Amino acid sequence: PPDSEQLGRSTWTFLHTMAAYYPDQPNPQQQGDMRSLLANFSKFYPCGYCASHLREEMKTDPPVVDSRQHLSLWMCQTHNKVNELLGKKIFDCTKVDERWRDGPAD
Ligand code: FAD
Known about the structure:
Blueprint: H1 4-20, H2 28-44, H3 48-60, H4 68-85, H5 96-102
Bound molecules: flavin-adenine dinucleotide.
């Protein structure tokens, strides 16, 4: 099976970046497409226990797809639940655009 650490880093990069560039005001089609993308993603993510954990997570806390800001926050909170599970540092979700969209203000 793939290296779950390397896969995880690459996948979070994709997921957070996708959320950071999602529309501010997505139309109903885009909202439906994002909901399907995430539901289907969790069926094929090639780390079995990660995927099943994510599916459980999405049942109790479904993706919020009505805006870029809400999706980015949902992704951050979902990643933080995994961070917590793994004993990693909790990420400050107010910094999500700086990390994944705008870059540091410097
Ligand atoms: P990662 O957690 O991969 O983070 C990469 C970068 O994202 C960090 O350096 C930081 O800059 C940024 N970041 C960190 N937290 C946040 C946040 N909350 N919001 C925004 N940006 C943030 N591994 C397991 O062992 N068990 C699991 O159940 C598991 N489930 C996973 C589920 C999913 C959907 C994914 C994508 C990965 C999962 N992983 C799981 C892998 C795990 O989350 C890490 O990717 C892996 O351990 C490598 O961690 P890392 O310390 O390199 O940083």
